[in-house]
Design brief:
Oligomer: single chain
Organism: Antarcticirhabdus aurantiaca
Radius of gyration: 20 Å
Shape: globular
Bound molecules: ligand C2E, calcium ion
Protein name: EAL domain-containing protein
Length: 275
């Protein structure tokens, strides 16, 4: 009884407000997932550094809250993960991304982000198979992005899931490279098709020689492993010049195009705003 009272006293008005916010966000999100309402996929182009052709587009989820307006995935993805909604939400993302990409006439791949919670439980492979069959998208035009931190949870089972997807012909990218623990161990544990160098390195590389060295070294690592290296967060001409000189094979960032809805991908010139 006493302990119960003490625990109860921990709920200050401020914390209670935050918890209410959280519960409300979860219920709105649940409604959105069930009704397929207020959820959108935006796409951001990834280009070959030399040819400047779009090789891939990353699907980035957007949620329009009925009262609060647009909420960033940084806020609602953790809520989806903790509430168990991520399975259904993630399955919707994969299906919608495959359907969208099947209509692109330039043959670009589509990259989809998956959470730790979607890995290591054997559900990803059937979800992807169903999406590929429904959309008619060839498996090698789908790419799955996993972060280093996502791999740490349940590592062996997660790697088993990655192998299953790879066996279907789906490509696997290692996201936010360099920000987690044991980056090199991950490269040894699984033959990724692509390494995405985190934007934080790219952003600092034009002013810090050490960051430029790291970008260059990862690019060289990619070359030696025969793996594509994408520099994320390329916002300026100076960033682009640097990552190209350092040998990154692909680039992604506001300098080439912001995440945008499907409709604005209609023409390449609308999609690629370089300014
Ligand atoms: P991420 O996978 O690292 O995605 C890249 C983030 O960087 C995106 O933020 C993108 O809009 C942003 N970005 C792209 N270019 C630039 C640039 O030049 N400068 C700067 N400052 N930022 C840039 P966004 O869309 O807010 O997504 C944030 C994170 O949410 C993603 O990070 C990813 O981890 C997660 N996320 C997004 N969509 C999904 C999804 O469908 N499923 C899951 N599980 N996670 C998702
Ligand atoms: Ca990503
Ligand atoms: Ca990233
Ligand atoms: Ca990130």
């Amino acid at each position: 009884k006493d302990a119960g009272k003490n625990t109860f006293r921990l709920f200050t008005p401020e914390l209670e407000l935050r918890l209410n916010d959280r519960v409300r966000l979860e219920s709105k999100l649940r409604h959105a997932v069930e009704q397929r309402e207020g959820l959108f996929l935006y796409y951001q182009p990834i280009l070959n550094t030399v040819t400047r052709q779009i090789t891939c587009r990353e699907a980035l989820i957007r949620f329009h809250h009925p009262l609060r307006g647009w909420i960033s995935p940084g806020e609602f993805i953790p809520v989806a993960e903790e509430s168990g909604l991520i399975g259904e939400l993630g399955a919707w993302v994969i299906e919608q991304a495959c359907l969208d990409a099947a209509s692109w006439t330039d043959g670009a791949r589509v990259a989809v982000n998956v959470s730790a919670r979607q890995l290591g439980n054997g559900t990803l492979q059937p979800t992807i198979l169903a999406a590929l069959l429904k959309s008619g998208l060839p498996p090698d035009r789908l790419e799955i992005e996993v972060t280093e931190t996502a791999l740490l949870e349940n590592e062996l089972d997660s790697l088993a899931d990655l192998r299953q997807m790879r066996a279907m012909g789906v490509r696997i990218a290692l996201d936010d490279f360099g920000t987690g623990f044991s980056s090199l161990a991950h490269l040894r544990a699984f033959p990724f098709d692509k390494i995405k160098i985190d934007g934080s390195f790219v952003r600092d590389a034009t002013t810090r020689a050490d960051c430029a060295a790291i970008v260059g070294l990862v690019a060289e690592l990619g070359t030696r492993l025969g793996v594509t290296t994408v520099a994320e967060g390329v916002e300026t001409q100076a960033h682009f010049d640097l990552v190209r000189a350092e040998g990154c094979t692909e680039v992604q960032g506001y300098f080439f195009g912001r995440p945008a809805p499907m409709e604005s991908l209609a023409t390449r010139s609308e999609e690629l705003k370089t300014a």
